[in-house]
Amino acid sequence: MDKKLNILTQNVANTALQVTPIISIPNPPSAIPMGCGIFLKINEDRYLISAGHLLNLKDWPNLMVPGADKKMVWLNGTVITSYKDSETDNPIDFGLLKFSTRQNKHFINGSFGFCNPSNIIVNHKVQQGGYYVIAGYPISGVKKTSGKAEFNPIPVKFLTYPLSENKYEKYRFNPDHFILVKYQRKVAPFGSKKKQITKELRGISGSGLWYVPDWNDRKKGVPKFYLVGIMVENYKDKGFVAALRIDFATEVIKQFFIYSPFEHTKFDFVDKVKNLYVSEIK
């Protein structure tokens, strides 16, 4: 079973990585990776979801993501973020960009896909004993190819499980806002008793936290899995990482844009998200 679970986890992670772009700032002839995001498409509208300290009001006009034909695409559009700059002190750490219509053509036939609303669970009830997957590109694993204007990104593919409910109170996290999952620096690979040091998760912010409800419920060999959070903080010294619930992003889409297929989140969004910054580059 361990070997089979390993293969299925790889299938989930590899599929999740197809909608997980690296966010970079230009540094000709290459670029500097800053973190990750999640591509989302609703009808013809394209979005980028990430952590607010990455997609903040000050820095977002200088950020780029991969597009088609190995080209980089500026983040032109409407940004809504909880961070004024990267140093903003706000536990609610998220940013959302709706790409301007004219930017859509730059993603057609590109190497990245876009997840759709059916791949997202709002108001997710954390399943104790359930399986969760982190898939992204920590900046500690993104290396520049020598002599070339390109990167060699090394992804992290991490199978984990949630912390018990009492840990939220201990570490002062609101379970309505966050999902905390285990992070072990030393783990035994599937089928092995010898522990290895896992990849450092520095710069994993903006990647997705994905929930796998049933390994046997598959489509084309890949278990069905769902986006439930965005990675925002690494507390490796305490043995866990924190994801902000995806509800914050889906609620912003529902309240600020014309069309949204998502249900309302059950927590008081207006009360908890008091400072949002909005800007636009057409």
Q: Could you tell me the radius of gyration in angstroms?
A: 18 Å
Q: Estimate what percentage of residues fall within beta strands.
A: 25-35%
- Count the E strands: 21
The largest sheet is: 6 strands, antiparallel
CATH class: Mainly Beta
CATH architecture grouping: Beta Barrel
Number of helices: 4
Q: Please, how many domains?
A: 1
CATH topology: Thrombin, subunit H
Can you say what the CATH homologous superfamily is?
A: Trypsin-like serine proteases
Organism: Brumimicrobium aurantiacum
Protein name: Serine protease
InterPro entries: Peptidase_S1_PA
Write a brief caption for the model.
By secondary structure, the protein is mainly β. It is 13% helix and 34% strand. It is built from 4 helices and 21 strands.
Detailed description of the structure:
It is built from four helices and 21 strands. The longest helix has 16 residues, at 2-17. The strands form seven sheets. The protein has a six-stranded antiparallel sheet with strand order 12-9-16-19-20-13. A five-stranded antiparallel sheet has the order 3-4-8-7-21, covered by helices on one side. Strands 1-2 form a two-stranded antiparallel ribbon. The protein is globular, with a radius of gyration of 18 Å. The chain has one domain (2-281): Thrombin, subunit H, CATH 2.40.10. The chain has 282 residues and is mostly beta strands. This is Serine protease. It comes from Brumimicrobium aurantiacum.
Helix-strand layout with pairing:
Layout: H1 2-17, E1 22-27, E2 30-36, E3 38-42, E4 45-50, E5 64-66, E6 72-74, E7 77-81, E8 95-99, E9 131-136, E10 142-144, E11 151-153, E12 156-160, H2 165-171, E13 178-182, E14 186-187, E15 196-197, E16 208-212, E17 218-219, E18 222-223, E19 226-235, E20 240-245, H3 247-256, H4 269-272, E21 277-281
